[in-house]
User: Which sequence fits this backbone?
């Protein structure tokens, strides 16, 4: 009887989606607190984001459950690895990391489309923004920033584990509670554009020096090459994933006390960046012309000033194959530590962006 009941439960989950039977509210809880601290910090957009709160909450939930014929499951695009930035989830139909995904024109809920929709339908725009914010939230989970297998359909990748789903213990134990959410502070919300926030999030969740002593590389290893899985470092072998992680309930809960507040604060920064970009949609042409007039130093050596402006800029440095290798923001942009050669730099300010060639000299 027990075996038959488990079989029926598995069939029901397959038919209706595991999210119908699993208590899945973490993304919404994170975003709800994010909206609160964003409104506290920025009274000029408080009323608006409260009106469209439910639309954002719906979007951030649906990103994990939506799929289409072109892209497959949207949750397969939620990884970005700082040390292997051209890596992607091996189960994804298209070779896109999370940063590429949120800008991709074939993604129906991409950032530029949300901005473009704002003037005609704020309801739809904020729903689409919720999808984008989900990907930023995910990068605060070390498995996402290490491209480590977890979730439905990954049991075959986990040694000695035959259940149809495998959720590593960090994700199982790190429940988003009021205690964790309450530590998020409005005065710590940074000022940065989306690409910069996503890179920072992935680095924050996977860098030992930033981890308040939790040393994430003791538990996760990044993929060796693009297209490969990252790995858990479980007890006892320390090698490829097995079913007995070293991440205890107590450790995971302490870890999430450190990660959850930062997740809310940086997600609030993304909401603010979205609102600012949408306010200037009517002046996009003038803003684009101003960016085109910027003097860009090229060739340029690492660490040298590329350009300066009288308002904050955001820059993404892109390889010829479309990989975002570095980001920067501020009124002064400097040449990043990238190999010499030809690169592209996408410079964004408010509603406008331009892409220019850049030669990094030796």
Assistant:
């Amino acid at each position: 009887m027990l075996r038959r009941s488990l079989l029926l439960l598995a069939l029901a989950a397959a038919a209706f989606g595991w999210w119908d039977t699993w208590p899945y509210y973490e993304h919404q809880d994170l975003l709800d607190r994010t909206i609160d601290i964003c409104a506290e910090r920025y009274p000029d957009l408080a009323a608006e984001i409260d009106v469209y709160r439910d639309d954002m909450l719906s979007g951030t939930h649906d990103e994990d459950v939506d799929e289409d014929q072109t892209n497959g499951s949207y949750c397969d695009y939620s990884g970005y690895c700082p040390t292997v930035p051209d890596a992607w989830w091996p189960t994804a139909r298209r070779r896109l990391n999370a940063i590429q995904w949120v800008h991709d024109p074939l993604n129906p809920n991409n950032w530029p489309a949300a901005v473009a929709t704002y003037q005609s339908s704020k309801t739809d725009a904020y729903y689409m923004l919720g999808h984008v914010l989900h990907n930023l939230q995910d990068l605060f989970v070390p498995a996402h920033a290490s491209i480590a297998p977890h979730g439905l359909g990954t049991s075959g990748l986990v040694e000695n584990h035959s259940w149809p789903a495998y959720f590593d213990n960090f994700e199982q134990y790190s429940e988003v509670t009021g205690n964790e959410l309450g530590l998020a502070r409005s005065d710590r919300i940074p000022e940065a554009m989306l690409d910069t926030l996503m890179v920072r999030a992935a680095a924050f969740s996977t860098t030992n020096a930033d981890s308040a002593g939790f040393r994430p590389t003791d538990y996760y290893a990044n993929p060796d090459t693009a297209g490969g899985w990252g790995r858990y470092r479980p007890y006892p072998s320390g090698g490829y994933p097995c079913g007995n992680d070293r991440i205890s309930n107590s450790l995971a809960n302490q870890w999430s006390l450190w990660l959850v507040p930062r997740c809310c604060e940086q997600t609030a920064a993304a909401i603010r960046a979205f609102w600012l970009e949408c306010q200037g949609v009517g002046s996009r042409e003038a803003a684009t012309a101003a960016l085109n007039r910027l003097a860009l130093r090229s060739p340029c050596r690492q660490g040298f000033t590329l350009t300066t402006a009288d308002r904050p800029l955001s820059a993404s440095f892109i390889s010829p194959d479309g990989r975002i290798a570095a980001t920067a923001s501020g009124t002064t942009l400097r040449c990043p530590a990238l190999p010499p050669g030809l690169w592209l730099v996408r410079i964004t300010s408010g509603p406008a962006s331009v892409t220019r060639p850049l030669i990094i000299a030796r």
Remarks:
- The mean pLDDT is 84.
- DSSP finds 13 helices and ten strands in the chain.
- Strands lie at 67-68, 72-73, 151-152, 165-166, 220-221, 231-232, 305-318, 324-334, 341-349, 352-360.
- The domain at 23-279 is CATH 1.10.575.10 (P1 Nuclease).
